[in-house]
Amino acid sequence: MDKFFPSRSAFITLVACCLVVIIALGIRQTFGLFYFDFSTDLDITISQFGFAMGLQLFLWGAFSPLFGVITDKYGGNIAIFLGFVFFLLGVILFYSGFNTGVYFIYTIGVLIGVGLGSTAIGIPVSVVAKHFPASKRTIATGIVTCAGSFGYFVSPVLVKYSLNESGWENTIFYFCLLLGLGLLVALFVSTPKIPVEDNQNKDQSAVDALKEAFANKSFIYLTLGFFVCGWHIALVATHIPTDMMDKGLPDWCATAVLSLIGLFNMVGTITSGYLSTRYSKKKILSAIYLLRGASIMIFIFFPPSVINSIIFGITFGFLWLSTVPPTNGIVAHIFGTKYVGMLYGIVFVSHQLGSFLGAYLGGVFYEMNGNFDYAWYGSIALSIFAGLIHLPINEKPIERLQTV
User: Fold this and answer.
1) Helices 76-95 and 122-131 sit at what angle, rounded to 10 degrees?
2) CB-based burial, 302-321: b 16+ in 10 Å, e otherwise
3) Which long-range contacts (C-beta less than 8 Å, at least 24 apart) are formed by 161-165?
């Protein structure tokens, strides 16, 4: 049996990228838990909060292609280090008092959003993908995504405890320390000059790669489908604490749901990564989105209860980031891995546009109607759309990359 790790640098990079996403996604996942403190102490309304979170998510996606280009040209260590600089700057300024009115938007929305463009899942996954051959690639990227899920799992519990015991200011300070650690971890990420099993397009330019991708219908379908993933994740991560509070559920219930999402996402992403090596990736994606719709329907149409919330955390958690390995795998399989950072970044822009609308419109619907019902109804409709839009994808490598 072949060794799983092609090289020592592949092992070190995988571990480093796992730590990167644990830090970045772990912090990002918990912002919804701060809303009540921000509302009381900083006079932030739910629509302002939703807009800042949405802008953060949109800029995360908008800067992903740029960081993808930096990754493909200069290396993932440079891109991730720069991302942590922006992330840390946003948190330090927020901690220093730049946290009300337009400053809230600038620090939480803009600077952290830019930082997430390289520190969150997209760039670490694309760097790891360059180290592994196709037979092991989705499992390796699934491990990175699983690490992010571990961050999702542990961070809500730790942050909730810190908020209760130390207050939100000290909790933000702890974030500064974690992000400083992230700067060091970024130095251990390496990017191979010629990705494994990808010599076929070594002379292709980035512009040619973009033209090739946008002329491919499968790339467009994949990009449209990933929009739905972003909407779902942002709506839940940003507004689930408020939604559960309004339903009369215990204060700890939202924390439990966010932790369950992280816990079961570890299982879901590894499962998705493994299945993507054996079965059609587009069919796996279609099933994931349709099952998300079913999970949401059970959550909103059954009477509110702790048990129903736990079921939602488990089922939606299993499907949370399970879209990432097959999505990244389809991009790498069709176009090769030389520009996978840039191309996956383009797909991720669509994801984050969905995230912006999910976070922002969720807050708008709440202020208009006093609940999130219309946001949930839209989520169900989008699940059906995504389940169908992936089916026409042609998963075969384009002719340029096929072996003779």
Assistant:
1) 160
2) eeeeeebbebbbbbbbbbbb
3) 163/33, 163/34, 163/37
Digit-coded pLDDT (tens) for 206-257: 788 888 888 889 999 999 999 999 999 889 988 888 888 888 888 888 888 8
Give the separation between CA 323 and CA 225, rounded to whole angstroms.
10
CB 72 within 8 A of CB 352: no
What separation in angstroms does the CA of 325 have from each of 20, 137, 269, 277, 330?
A: 17, 9, 7, 10, 9
Tokens of 49: 């909060």
pTM for the complete prediction? 0.75
Tokens of 172: 């933000």
Residue 370 included in any domain = yes
Question: Distance between CA 372 and CA 246 in Å, rounded?
Answer: 10
pLDDT tens-digit map of 22-74: 999 889 878 878 888 898 999 888 888 888 988 888 888 888 888 888 887 88
Measured over the CA atoms of residue 67, residue 70, residue 76 and residue 77, the dihedral's sign is negative
- 201 assigned to some structural domain: no
Residues spanned by the domain of 386? 9-193+206-401
Whose structure tokens read 């899942």? 121
CATH number of the domain at 176, please.
Answer: 1.20.1250.20
- Kind plus residue range of the DSSP H or E element containing 99: none
Q: Is 162 a member of any domain?
A: yes
CA–CA distance from 266 to each of 18, 20, 25, 148, 348 (Å)?
12, 16, 13, 8, 21
Amino acid making up residue 83? G
Domain count, the chain: 1
Could you say which DSSP state residue 31 is in?
A: G
Q: 3 CB contacts (<8 Å, ≥6 apart)?
A: none
Q: What single DSSP character describes residue 32?
A: G
Amino acid sitting at position 389: I
| H-run or E-run covering 226 | helix 217-246
What separation in angstroms does the CA of 18 have from each of 10, 189, 313?
A: 12, 10, 23
The CA radius of gyration of the chain, in Å to the nearest whole number, is 20
Interior angle at CA 193, CA 125 and CA 121, nearest 5: 10
In the chain, % helix, strand, coil (3-state, to 5) comes to 80, 0, 20
